[in-house]
Write a structure and sequence with these properties.
about 0% strand, mainly alpha, globular, about 170 residues, 8 helices
Length: about 170
């Protein structure tokens, strides 16, 4: 299969699994899940944990913060180099205005990054729960029409590699 056919298949598949706004309950759940991987929420939550959480968590909070920041920089460099436009759609106007490029998905990269770090650094139950969360975030990004499947696959792969690498480097540093 050549690249052009692969892109068309990716677009068609992504369009087929979209959730329309008429399915209000599913649409709201997908919207919540899609936003749950927003960097602003994670940075805010990590700042709260840094200042108000137990001191034993500070190292993990620092790892997560640095990892999220570095991943975001890498994703933006890739997005503005590749410049693949987002799918057409109405939902996610903020994303479409602030970041018109879709490849790779920053949300998928961030979710996979956090999951990989928790699988290495955190309790197993949390890592396993985050695998489920990552899958739901990834599905919601396609279902709401802000990403194609290939954006999600690339973002997830990037996040897993970076999460594992950052966890290993952090362990070696400390």
């Amino acid at each position: 299969m050549d690249l052009k056919k692969l892109v068309i298949t990716d677009q068609q598949f992504s369009r087929r699994i979209r959730i329309t706004e008429e399915r209000l309950g599913f649409h709201r759940a997908a919207s919540f899940l899609a936003h749950s991987a927003d960097s602003w929420y994670w940075i805010g939550g990590l700042a709260a944990l840094w200042f108000f959480g137990p001191p034993v968590w500070k190292s993990t909070v620092a790892l997560l913060f640095v990892s999220i920041f570095l991943t975001a920089v890498l994703v933006l460099i890739l997005k503005f180099t590749i410049r693949r436009p987002r799918p057409e759609g109405m939902w996610g106007d903020f994303y479409r205005r602030s970041d018109p490029h879709s490849f790779p998905s920053g949300h998928a990269a961030r979710a996979a990054l956090l999951t990989a770090i928790m699988l290495v650094q955190g309790p197993l139950w949390l890592g396993l729960l985050m695998i489920l969360w990552t899958g739901l975030v990834n599905y919601s990004r396609i279902a709401l029409g802000v990403h194609y499947l290939s954006d999600i696959v690339a973002g997830t792969a990037l996040g897993l590699v970076l999460g594992w690498s950052f966890s290993l480097a952090w362990t070696l540093i400390l």
